[in-house]
Amino acid sequence: MAMLGKRRPPRPTAGHSGLVRKPNRKAESKESASTALTIERLAHDGRGVAHNAAGKTVFVDQALPGEQVDAAVHVTRKRYDEAHIKTRLTTSEQRVEPPCPYFGQCGGCDLQHLNITAQRQHKRDVVTELMARQGITLGTITALNGASEHYRRRARLGVKVDGQGNVLLGFRAPHSHRLVDIEQCHVLVPALNALILPLRQLLATLEAPRLVGHVELLATHEAIVILVRQLKAHEQDMARWQRFAEQQQISLGTWLGRETAAFHWNGAQNAVEPVLQEVLNLDEMEIRRTNFHQKGLDFAGTNAPSVLTLHFLPGDFLQVNAEVNQKMVAQVVEWLTPMPGQQLLDLFAGIGNFSLPLAAVGAQVTAVEGNPTMVERITANAIANQLDVSALQADLSNADTVQNLLSECQQIDALVLDPPRNGAEAVCQALGRYKIPKVAYISCDPATLARDAAHLVHAGYRVKQVAVADMFLHTAHLETLMLFEYVG
Question: Which residue ranges are recorded for the region named Disordered (predicted)?
């Protein structure tokens, strides 16, 4: 056990990992001869869709609509095949040179070969198609867009030691556990991108780099933070991390342990715990003054703050794109425009991303979270911003709990839903009984949103507004916002 986590001498290699493995016959796929295909459209995940001579669907990596390609099938399934381009015979006008040198290797940004306008149109088309499958027709879709590069303020980079003893730092390859070693990242904010090379240099000096599971980078309003997942304590390497944090003038935190990891801050001697906060500027978002003016109210007479600071801790959820998040908050407040004193329920409230801005424009907000720790976080954030927000803990995936919650909340004027990827089915199935006038649904998965929207429409709601937020530019992921109104 003395060598646990430490470098080992090089050994004969076979393949990327350096391990000699027996072939897995069951999972093995043989590449077929190339087949000429015409790409008809994009699948939801951004792959090109074609049909072979027999009419079977073929998904082709990195192919764009209208292109003719010679493609080789690398996975054969019963209903469809998966293929890659061997030769591109024609080129779409929408194709561009990917801005990242790791495109096609790294599994992070899979749409960099498609121009940005077409990327955003594709995302709107995905939402429209999924809703149409549920019998829901959408009108105009508002676009909430941000910067075209260096937008991501949070990322997790894997760490691995290969068979030659080289330490790799980067992201996973598509559909693989293989780590792609990187020196830069096109979508990280500049302060985080600048840390990648120094991090690589530091990792190469560690005595036990195998004990590092991953490194999380975080850029906040007040601090640059590195969070290290350390599988087992190593005193000498921890000292190296601390010196690195001092040299880079950043904050350092460590998750220590294999199964149940304990978190603690460390770094310079007598280091002060950094302040992690999300800043929402209501004046900058042009929602606070407009909201009061439209209602004929005296804006100058309100004591609500114009800049909100939402504190959070490592492990709390934070949107990766600060600019687009501000636009989403502004859109939801504009849609709901609560009159002062109106009752608003915010479910899956997180750290208060929507609760606090809505309270700042006059609503009486009840925020609900499943995690008791997050309930404490919302309460603390409301107090710090001098806002009256009540916070409750409830399991929002449980139908009985949801029924009890909605029945106990008197005269709800509007509801906000911001669930995780699995959606808010239990809530949407229950809403027909309560006839809440307005429901704003923010979704990171358009498929579960379409399912839940069908429940709402069946219960007497109609779609009033739709917006697609390009939170994850250059990827197929998106955030969708929908406003429903109850019409009976």
Answer: 1-34
Query: Is 67 marked as a binding-site residue?
Result: no
Query: From first to last of its 488 residues, what are the pLDDT tens digits of the chain?
Result: 444 454 445 444 433 333 333 444 343 455 667 789 999 999 999 999 999 999 999 999 999 999 999 999 999 999 999 999 999 999 999 999 999 999 999 988 999 999 999 999 999 999 999 999 999 999 999 999 999 999 999 999 999 999 999 999 999 998 888 999 999 999 999 999 999 999 999 999 999 999 999 999 999 988 899 999 999 999 999 999 999 999 999 999 999 998 888 999 985 445 568 889 999 998 877 654 555 555 554 444 455 678 999 999 999 999 999 999 999 999 999 999 898 889 999 999 999 999 999 999 999 999 999 999 999 999 999 999 999 999 999 999 999 999 999 988 878 999 999 999 999 999 999 998 899 999 999 999 999 999 999 999 999 999 999 999 999 999 999 999 999 999 98
Residue 388, marked binder: no
Residue 334 is assigned to a ligand binding site: no
For residues 282 and 357, the answer to whether their CB atoms sit within 8 Å is yes
Are 400 and 373 in a shared domain?
A: yes
Task: For tokens 């992921």, name the residue.
Answer: 477
Where is 169: in which H helix or E strand?
A: strand 167-172
380 is a domain residue = yes
Q: Provide the whole-model pTM.
A: 0.89
Neighbours of 71 (CB within 10 A): 28
**In a shared domain, residues 173 and 205:** yes
Same domain, 232 and 90: no
305/298 Cα distance (integer angstroms) = 15
As given in the structure block, the two tokens for residue 389 are: 């927000």
Instruction: Give the three-class secondary structure for 369.
Output: strand
The whole-angstrom distance between residue 167's C-alpha and the CA centroid of its chain comes to 27
Q: Domain of residue 63: give its range.
A: 35-95
Active-site annotation holds for 444: yes
Q: Which of 332, 382, 444, 478 is catalytic?
A: 444
